Amino acid sequence: MFKVLAISALLLVLATEAANLGCKSQSNYSVDGKCPEGQVAVGGGFNCCDKADVYDIDSYACRGESVGPALGGMCFDGALAVADGECCEAAQAYAKNMK
User: For the chain, how long is the longest CA-to-CA vector?
Assistant: First the structure.
């Protein structure tokens, strides 16, 4: 019984620490959560993005005002999803560690 609880707790921690990935360019729909070679699943696994355009949403913030909520980690063209589930104009988004 203890082993089951320990394994469940470990899996919960690993799932919680998973990166919240977004795409800096336009994404495509995934097929059953799978993406073509050279692309990564983002937006909860529903979309695919070129590896070079993938970023960690939680490490980005917005200098200006939010332009609306990020739905499933995705925003309209010209906006990036940032921490706290918001969309920000791409020109106003910045990596938190590079203020």
Answer: 52
Return the amino acid letter for 83.
A
How crowded is residue 87: how many other Cβ atoms within 10 Å of its Cβ? 22
Nearest to 79 by CA among 29, 4, 14, 26: 26
CA distances from 10 to 6, 14, 46, 70 (A): 6, 6, 25, 29
Q: How far apart are CA 15 and CA 49, in angstroms?
A: 21
In this predicted model, what pLDDT tens digit does every residue of 48-68 receive, in sequence order?
Answer: 999 999 999 999 999 999 999
The residue with tokens 């993406």 is 35
**Residue among 48, 45, 58, 59 nearest 23 (CA):** 48
